[in-house]
Design brief:
Length: 314
């Protein structure tokens, strides 16, 4: 199968959104041009209904200077970034927003409000991050997790990280997501704890402690991504060569992998935080407009999946 072009994958994602209504989204502290423009553009494309939370005068000033048409976007005044994060989370708790989006504040500041015990958006799941990647040389969208939140996840943490990613992939239309659990080797050895975790995760999936996906591991990256490499190693696997999800052994490995795909393989990426009561759209000033829109599109699909009675929820 020839790899699908990046444009094809991206356009197909947006096509899935066209028939769906925009989702109310609390945008925390969009007080920088690219952050404000990204949220407003996603609103213009019908993906989200942005609720801009931050210093009202500053938001309007930035919009005026950058000639950003705020249209009918609602502005909720908050004096500074910390207050904006708290207020945006409060809007979600009140049911006025179904998504949360990072503006120009620090990620830690926003996530601190998300995981606050009394006022946050905690669930029974551990919060985790996913990169949804459009890799030009790969034949479908690829999810990489966790590359931004859980530094050295335990086996129990990986169960939630895996389940969060599976549920997202299902909301994107994948009937049974294939999960490649990465390590440096494909054999199980006590000298490499990641291989033990991989083996345990596969057994836990068999016992329905992880649901909805097809897991295999440990798999080295070449065996995970290439059927030929797996065949040479004598690995028989429905996942090898066709994963939807790459589960990294730790944050450093996941972060390096995601950035390698971005900078050496020219992959576009969308970033989400999962495991809270609603998906959290994470963007950075370095993100392209394409990546920002893709992040909103993925989050929109996840939000609509949560509305379905049969959908996966936390």
């Amino acid at each position: 199968m020839k790899p699908e072009t990046g444009t094809g994958k991206y356009e197909r994602l947006l096509e899935r959104c066209q028939s769906l209504p925009a989702v109310p989204t609390a945008v925390a502290h969009p007080c920088e041009e690219s952050a404000l423009a990204g949220a407003v553009e996603a609103g213009h494309k019908g993906l989200i209904e942005p609720i801009l939370v931050g210093p009202a005068a500053k938001i309007q000033e930035i919009a005026s200077k950058a000639r950003i048409d705020l249209g009918r976007a609602q502005i909720v005044d908050a004096p500074h970034s910390h207050a904006a994060a708290a207020k945006a989370v409060e809007l979600v708790r009140q049911g006025k927003a179904e998504l949360l989006m990072k503006g120009s504040l620090h990620t830690d500041e926003l996530l601190g409000a998300v995981v606050a015990r009394e006022t946050g958006l905690r669930t029974g799941r551990r919060v985790s991050h996913v990169f949804i990647m459009d890799v030009p040389t790969y034949h479908k969208v690829l999810i990489v997790t966790d590359a931004a939140i859980n530094i050295a996840p335990s086996l129990e943490d990986k169960v939630d990280i895996c389940q969060n990613a599976i549920d997202l992939a299902v909301s994107l239309g994948v009937a049974q997501p294939k999960v490649a659990i990465l390590a440096a080797v494909e054999t199980v050895t006590s000298k490499m704890p990641a291989t033990l975790d991989a083996a345990a995760l596969c057994k836990m999936a068999e016992r329905k402690q992880i649901n909805g996906g097809l897991l295999d591991g440990p798999l080295a990256f070449d065996n995970a991504i290439s059927k030929e490499a797996a065949k040479i190693k004598g690995i028989r696997s429905e996942v090898a060569g066709d994963p939807d999800i790459l589960l990294a052994p730790d944050l450093e490995a996941g972060n390096i992998l995601a950035k390698l795909l971005s900078f050496l393989a020219n992959a576009d990426s969308a970033g989400l935080v999962l495991g809270a009561k609603v998906p959290v759209i994470l963007t950075s000033r370095a993100d392209s407009v394409r990546s920002r829109i893709a992040s909103c599109a993925v989050a929109m699909l996840a939000a609509h999946a949560r509305r379905q009675p049969a959908g996966k929820g936390d």
